Amino acid sequence: MTFETAESVTLKIWDRSAVHTTLDTLVEDLSVRHNTDKSRIAVTCSGPNTFTLSLNPAL
């Protein structure tokens, strides 16, 4: 299950051994897509095995 908007991605990761690599890959993808630093990508746990990655406004 994946939901995507222009500035965020929400997905459910069932395989616990793949959580870190999946999130790292998605952070990299969002930062490249928006031409921004990885530090501007927020990762939150929004439910059981569900994570939301979103673009933070410029600091």
Structure explained in plain terms:
The protein is of the alpha+beta class and 59 residues long. It has one domain (2-50). 25% of the residues lie in helices and 36% in strands. It has one helix and four strands. It has one helix spanning 19-33, and strands at 2-4, 8-12, 41-47, 50-55. The chain has a four-stranded antiparallel β-sheet with strand order 1-2-4-3, covered by helices on one side. The radius of gyration is 11 Å and the shape is globular. The termini are far apart. The mean pLDDT is 87.
Could you give the count of β-strands? 4
User: What is the arithmetic mean of pLDDT?
Assistant: 87
Rg from alpha-carbon coordinates: 11 Å
Helix content: 25-40%
Strand order of the largest sheet: 1-2-4-3
What pattern of helices and strands is seen along the backbone? EEHEE
Q: Which regions are unreliable across 5 or more consecutive residues at pLDDT < 50? A: none
Tally of structural domains:
1
Helix and strand topology:
Elements: E1 2-4, E2 8-12, H1 19-33, E3 41-47, E4 50-55
Antiparallel strand pairs: 1-2, 2-4, 3-4
Compact summary:
With 59 residues, this protein is of the alpha+beta class.
